[in-house]
Amino acid sequence: MFSINIIFMSSIEGFKGEWSFLSNFYPCEIQCDGLIYKSVEAFYVAMKFNNDQIFNGKHYSVGDFREMISLTPSPGLVKKIGQKIIIRSDWDVRKLGFMNWAIREKFKDINLLELLLSTGDMDIIETNNWGDTFWGVCNGRGKNHLGKILMKVRDELRGVEKKTGLEEFFN
After folding, report:
1. Cβ(120)–Cβ(109) under 8 Å?
2. I need a labelling partner for 17 at 20 to 30 A (CA). Which of 101, 129, 167, 170 fits?
3. For 24-72, how does the pLDDT look when each residue is reduced to its tens digit (9 = 90+)?
4. Contact 43/32 with Cβ under 8 angstroms?
5. CA 147 – CA 137 distance, rounded (Å)
6. How far is CA 164 from CA 145, 152, 169, in A?
7. What pLDDT score was predicted for residue 8?
8. With 70 as the cut, is the pLDDT of residue 165 above it?
9. Euclidean distance between the first and final Cα of the chain, in Å?
10. Bridge partner list, 11
11. pTM of the full predicted structure?
């Protein structure tokens, strides 16, 4: 007689390997205002910029900057650029909205949608070792906003969005 061990995963922790498609660096097309961004990261960084400024010794209008970001080939380079610009004054109140929109756009791609749905009911946790406790979890602490957005979008796309409060009585 033999036995079979079945392991059920209850969470996805980190966006490497088979889960790399969950990363904001994963290649996808995000279309906005006539530009096509190569990743969620690129769109996100482009939205940080909403006024003319000098960057690397060159004057950029908002449109010029966003076009430059849309043409930048590497999400890693895009992220570095985003760390050196003057960020829009309303960023803290707008960044969640931009991320929500970009994640929804990303998963309009049928292949990426199928991958997201394949995560089933697993918790999605953006673990990291670079200290990001807003979008993810580092050393066991963090708000995991990116993971929460991914799970919410997954539930919406499956048509099983969990309702809270009085909403469940009125729908």
Report:
1. no
2. 101
3. 999 999 999 999 999 999 999 999 999 999 999 999 999 999 999 999 9
4. yes
5. 9
6. 18, 13, 10
7. 56
8. no
9. 52
10. 123
11. 0.87
Phi first, then psi, for residue 161 (nearest 5°) are: -55, 130
3-state secondary structure (DSSP) of residue 58: strand
Q: Which residues contact 143 (CB under 8 A, 6 or more apart)?
A: 133, 134, 135
**Can you say how many angstroms the Cα of residue 9 is from the centroid of all Cα atoms in its chain?**
22
Q: How far is CA 149 from the centre of its chain?
A: 8
Cα–Cα distance measured from residue 107 to residue 29, given in angstroms and rounded to the nearest whole number = 10
Distance CA 26, CA 113 (A): 13
Helix ranges, 107-144 (H): 110-117
Q: Token pair of 90, please?
A: 């309303």
pLDDT at position 2, please? 57
pLDDT tens-digit profile of 94-146? Answer: 999 999 999 999 999 999 999 999 999 999 999 999 999 999 999 999 999 99
Residues facing 141 on adjacent strands: 138
φ, ψ at 147 (rounded to 5°): -60, -40
Percent of the chain clearing pLDDT 90 (strictly above): 87
